[in-house]
Amino acid sequence: MKRLRNKYTKDERVRFISHLDLLRVFQRALRRADIKVAFSQGFNPHPKISFGPALVVGATTEADYMDVDLEEEISAEEFKKRMNKVLPPGIKIVESYEVDVNDPLSKRIKAAEYILKVNFKKNCKDVENKLEEFIKRDAIELEKETKSGKKMIDLKFYLLDLKALEIKEGYLKLYIKLKLEEGVPNPLNLLKALNEYLGDVFEMDSYKLHRKNIILE
Amino acid sequence: MEDLKDKIDALFIKVNKPTRYTGGELNSYIKNPEDVKMRFAFAFPDIYEVGMSHLGLRILYHLLNKREDVYCERVFAPWVDMEKLIREKNIPLFSLETKTPLHKFDFVGFTLQYELSYTNVINMLDLGGIPILSREREGLPFVIAGGPCAYNPSPLSEVIDFFVMGEGEEVINEVMDAYVDWKEKKGEREEFLEIVSQIKGVYVPKYYIEEYNKDGTIKDIRPIKKGVPEKVKKRIVKDFENVYHPEEQIVPFMDIVHDRIMLEVFRGCTRGCRFCQAGMIYRPLREKSKEKILELTDKLVKSTGYEEISLASLSTFDYSQIEDLIKELIEKYKDKGVGISIPSTRVDALSINLLKEIQKVRKTGLTLAPEAGTQRLRDVINKGITEEDILEATKEAFSAGWNNIKLYFMIGLPTETIEDVEGIADLAYKIVDNYKKVRGNVKNLKLTISTSTFVPKPFTPFQWARQDSIKEIIEKQDLLKKKLRSKVLKYNWHNPYMSFLEAVISRGDRKVGRAIIKAWEKGCKFDGWEEYLNYEKWEEAFKEAGVNPYFYANRERSLEEVFPWDVIDVGVNKRFLIREYKKSQERRITPDCRLYCTGCGVKDFDEGVVCFEAPKKQIYKR
Ligand code: SF4
After folding, report:
1. CB neighbours of A11 closer than 8 A, spacing ≥ 6?
2. What is the pTM of this model?
3. Nearest CA, atom 6, ligand 1
4. Bigger pLDDT: B607 or B2?
């Protein structure tokens, strides 16, 4: 058995497919490419494929990761080539390399960088300064839904960087860097907090989110 | 145009399950609309998950797109959240592939699978910027329809420009060819309708008139235009072995109702259940060879990567080489983790044994359809199974390890009495006893009993019968609710108001069509969805249209009555249907016609129509 770590992209055309959909996409692509995947043992065997933390639906990415354990000897290069031939338009593996089978992806992923664009629904002056004030606060409190009900969290603990890339009449483009692991707040949670801080200025469902990079350790 | 695309794009984030509308799935077609001569919108009047699960759509989508001069795109009924948005923002209903408004196509083709989707047909036209009435469509697309419900074209005859009767694989190409010709000659809209009215299988409603007697029954349906056929004959594919079957299939991103490869192994059915419309209208029986099926599965697995193959037909275990086929498929695909599924299980031990094999690769549920609770009633409907068959099959299943079994019955069948209804419960408890015998106790057993309600359908031996009144249906359901109260049993029943509406529409005439439009005007849509059916509005619609719905649903017809669908010829003739109806009343059964021809008439319908003959030993003996 060998493990391949794959970096893949997901563009505009497939930005609405969910995390669960994506798992199916890869499983079926593996079958089309006729590549033998390792299966877990047990009552309900399932293919050994693992992903990093889910990307929010509607977002694109140019640097997400997926690990797959293979039953057959096949080079990373060959794997990438064969998969890219059969993946649906909009999803592509850009890098593939072998890692140790005892090297779990989840332990490697540390942080992610995003570009977030959102439209203003009303005028907002002095955005740059206000952003700085927003970050400088002692805590950025946010209510987050969890399985065990609502919970207050401090975004500041997760936020590594935030700056404005473009401030235009109609929209704002942000650069965001957040810690990344299962269950951590995502850029939309941040956007919500920022929107409250600025006095409800964004058209909240007009955003475009792009994951620029995932930082592995 | 680009502007519209952006507007549409901005909607996706706001709706539930956006991949219902985004397109771009594997094996869907990307063409440049400028490069084709015809743009065809295949319209399914229900949501994506339902529509994409439909084999007919899958066949015709690929068949049309194989043509270089046609671009076939898909459009589904938008769910209510999306409809609200596009109505608010004045965005016309659009196709998945290129986000083109419906009114910009050359054709909008609906498939009519169930009557309760008719308000959705109208709603989709309206949303797509197309007038809902055929006569107001100058300069706009031709709206056409096919599918099983089209065999009674009357209710939608003011909405649909023309219907295509029967199997579409050949006739759709003839219609497309005629269109190219007509377009090049820059003909008038009327001229095209005249041209297609000469294509076999095409029914242009406005060339026919429906006249009524004083009592509301039909006096006559006849052509009012010279040269159109007196009766429109359905199309039958004669060479089923080689007829087009897609070698690829769209693989949706989201989970749909039937998310698997669908491969049609045979068409038609010879069993002759008297309530079953499909069993009559899809005759004659035609099989694909085992070799052909294996070749197609190979290509389909390669092109889709699906983990499951469904062998589709009306009764797959009747396929003449079913044992060999299943064994070979399992052998070939088990290492790839590809399983097999069979839509309905025949009630016998052989089928259970085969399912046992299938189950080793991929777990599958077990569904049996005894249809009626007593032997008397099973004989009336010509369901050729006995109580022993049912008990033996379920016993076999319990020994093989199944704990969950679903049983399907129908209530309200002609001649049904309270004993027959109670028979359903009695049978259920006999099966529970069986489980106890096999397993010692009933701890793990779950037996689901579902009843649908009998809806008399055109072109069946029961087309003359009445449907039970809503009150009678509810009484029977209540009786079963009481009788089937047990920890190991679960009882599901069908909404009686829906069944009633189905019965009104399925044998409806043009007057009923007006009531459907009225109902839509009042906001009815998704009538087959429990949460959206609004029966009060339908009642108002009937009243305002001057239609007495009970006249259509609950009235027994005389054998002489003229039906709206008498203008269509499906091959199975009325003499046969009458004979079967009479035999049902005498509780006489008619054997499976693979044993010997029982004279339904389809053989003599057209030159070259051949009924499949299985080697005698393989026929399932009753
Ligand atoms: S013509 Fe005879 S064999 Fe053919 S479907 Fe009809 S009854 Fe069956």
Report:
1. A60, A90, A91
2. 0.94
3. B600
4. B607
